[in-house]
Amino acid sequence: MDDSQLLDFFKALADASRLKIIGLLAQESFTVEQLAAMLKLRPSTVSHHLARLSKAGLVSARAEGYYNLYRLETSKLETIARRMLSREALPAIAADVDLEAYDRKVLTDFSNPDGSLKTIPAQRKKLTVILCHIAKSFEPEVRYPEKEVNQILARFHQDTATLRRELVGAGLLERQRGEYWKVQGSGNRV
Amino acid sequence: MDDSQLLDFFKALADASRLKIIGLLAQESFTVEQLAAMLKLRPSTVSHHLARLSKAGLVSARAEGYYNLYRLETSKLETIARRMLSREALPAIAADVDLEAYDRKVLTDFSNPDGSLKTIPAQRKKLTVILCHIAKSFEPEVRYPEKEVNQILARFHQDTATLRRELVGAGLLERQRGEYWKVQGSGNRV
DNA sequence: TAATTAATTAGATGAATATCGAATTAATTT
DNA sequence: AAATTAATTCGATATTCATCTAATTAATTA
């Protein structure tokens, strides 16, 4: 569900002392003093670690006299573990990432202000991005004679023959008897 | 199994950028450049993150041309998740921790060099530690008359009556008809 | 072969944080 | 009420590390 809560969880466990605390509390509840003696740390340090673990929902405290008895919240551990195993939860972490950023970068890197291409990319990966972009200039369901195709491609680069060949090779344009048309559903991603 | 490998795992995921990388690779393989563009980071930074993830066994690279295509190692994720869910794996994290350190600390805090007690602890938790220690001075299977019990207890503290009463109250010593004997299996932990 | 390009490595810098000692708070014992 | 005690909080310090730029390596294209 939550984005930063997962990060807090991993940050909480990304420390040798805190990991040991989790291991100890998995066996039995302990007070701050006991943990400090076993880990050979100052109580203030252990208190700090427990606060972090508590903020991540991994431990909870129960006051007993003037002791504070800490216990492990196994449910939290289980929740996260199950999330790591689920197929959908992982991609959700990157939900707010801009997936098209790379394509845009390639496009601006190779385009002049007027929209024409500086050069035709040599790398397959970049060429594909450019070709997908060019394909958007073709209407679906329309059949273009070669002369019109060249007119459109000339807006991008003088070497229309190469562009035409690559568009067909990439499966973005189809050709038959001197006529061309856009392949359905080839508007966007690779 | 391994101790520091688990720590490496959590450290690897304890960063917002790396967590996003995992989320992205969960959908599809990407090159360093693509990830850099999507995350708005320099390729060198992404490379550094991928190295960390790789060291933790979370991703692997496949050379393709002069691209490096990174993919997620879901098996590693599954292994750790299952370990988090298992009852035995968690306590194993603290296998090398000195569990008796607290008891030893209490013992030295309250003992004089000759082994006698400075005072009898007021806190239940500490009193129990001391009582367990004293109980070790009694042989199993042996019945002690009260006079002998007092002789042994006097080595620890003059207030033998209190010690005797507490030992019985804690269930470490049993009494019947003026004779005392050690309760089986009460030698050590609380 | 020379120029370009993806990726990694090295070095530098600033931010986060693990740990400690001291001060404070709250509960217990005398 | 005064003294003791467990725990937390605060301030300081040293370390770890995320990120950047620059340099280097390795592969591809011209």
Structure description:
2 copies of one chain form a homodimer. The first copy, chain A, is α+β, with helices and mostly antiparallel strands and 190 residues long. Helix content of chain A is 52%, strand content 13%. The first copy, chain A, folds into 2 domains: 4-93, Arc Repressor Mutant, subunit A (Orthogonal Bundle), CATH 1.10.10.10; 101-182, Arc Repressor Mutant, subunit A, CATH 1.10.10. Chain A has helices spanning 4-13, 16-25, 32-39, 43-55, 74-85, 89-93, 101-110, 124-135, 146-154, 160-169, and strands at 30-31, 59-64, 67-72, 144-145, 173-176, 179-182. In chain A, helix 1 (4-13) packs antiparallel against helix 4. At the A-B interface, helix 1, helix 2, helix 3, helix 5 and helix 6 of A face helix 1, helix 2, helix 3, helix 5 and helix 6 of B. Chain A binds a DNA duplex (30 and 30 nucleotides) through residues 15, 17, 31-33, 41-49, 51, 63, 65-68, 122-123.
Short description:
2 copies of one chain form a homodimer. In chain A, 52% of the residues lie in helices and 13% in strands.
N→C terminal distance of chain A = 29 Å
**Average pLDDT across residues of chain A?**
93
CATH H-tier superfamily of the largest domain in chain A: Winged helix-like DNA-binding domain superfamily/Winged helix DNA-binding domain
The residue fraction in helices of chain A comes out at 40-55%
Tally of strands of chain A: 6
> What Rg of chain A do the Cα atoms give?
30 Å
Which outline of chain A best applies?
Answer: rod-shaped
Q: Main β-sheet of chain A: number of strands, strand sense, barrel status? A: 3 strands, antiparallel
H/E element string of chain A? Answer: HHEHHEEHHHHEHHEE
Helix/strand class of chain A: alpha+beta
